[in-house]
């Protein structure tokens, strides 16, 4: 498919992207921006499109991934908590300050014990994910299918949640 043909086909499909973009963003201006960014990425990455495959699905995938990446960027940026409003500053005498880390230490010991109770096949991928490995990296290192890795991490979380249910917050 030539660049001109590709451009023509993509431009004809642009209006069909708008409803899906609106469903993702729930804002008409943001939806227009998302469609525009999707089309820009499609034109820039035209060489990555395989002729004979579903162009519409490819465009929807670009749009969805663009939306997810933008959402993750926004939530990561706004997730830092400013605790200055919650901290009350009182002039205190250093002799009156007491630190009690016992309850935190008990909880941490319970967490470590719960992790140790996990079967090795669940504990290893869970701990790798916990320290920062991505699913694909864990899959490569353990020579397991990525679906198996995701499932084992899910099962480990489920078992840990059950084991540590005494620490759950009551709503």
Descriptive account of the structure:
- This protein has 171 residues and is an all-alpha fold.
- The protein has 2 domains: 75 residues, Rna Polymerase Sigma Factor, Chain: A (Orthogonal Bundle), CATH 1.10.1740.10; 50 residues, Arc Repressor Mutant, subunit A.
- The protein has 7 helices and no strands.
- The radius of gyration is 24 Å and the shape is elongated.
- The model has no long low-confidence stretch (mean pLDDT 83).
- Keywords: Sigma factor, Transcription, Transcription regulation.
How many whole angstroms does the radius of gyration measure?
Answer: 24 Å
Order of SSEs: HHHHHHH
What do we call the CATH topology of the largest domain? Answer: Rna Polymerase Sigma Factor, Chain: A
Low-pLDDT runs? none
Fraction in helix: 55-70%
The domain count comes to 2
| Proportion of residues in extended strands | under 5%
CATH homologous superfamily designation of the largest domain: RNA polymerase sigma factor, region 2, helix turn helix motif
- Describe the main β-sheet briefly: none
CATH architecture of the largest domain: Orthogonal Bundle
Domain RNA polymerase sigma factor 70 region 4 type: 109-160
Family: Belongs to the sigma-70 factor family. ECF subfamily.
GO molecular function, one term: sigma factor activity
Protein name: RNA polymerase subunit sigma
């Amino acid at each position: 498919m030539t660049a001109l043909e590709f451009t023509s086909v993509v431009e004809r499909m642009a209006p069909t992207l708008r409803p899906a973009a609106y469903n993702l963003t729930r804002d008409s201006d943001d939806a227009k921006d998302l469609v525009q960014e999707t089309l820009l990425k499609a034109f820039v990455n035209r060489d990555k499109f395989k002729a004979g495959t579903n162009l519409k699905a490819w465009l929807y995938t670009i749009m969805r991934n663009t939306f997810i990446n933008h959402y993750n960027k926004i939530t990561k940026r706004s997730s830092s908590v400013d605790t200055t409003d919650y901290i009350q500053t009182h002039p205190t005498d250093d002799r009156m300050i007491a630190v009690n880390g016992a309850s935190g230490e008990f909880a941490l010991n319970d967490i470590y014990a719960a992790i140790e109770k996990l079967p090795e096949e669940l504990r290893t991928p869970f701990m790798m994910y916990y320290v920062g490995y991505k699913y694909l990296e864990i899959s490569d290192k353990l020579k397991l299918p990525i679906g198996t890795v995701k499932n084992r991490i899910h099962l480990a979380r489920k078992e840990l949640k059950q084991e540590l249910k005494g620490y759950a917050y009551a709503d």
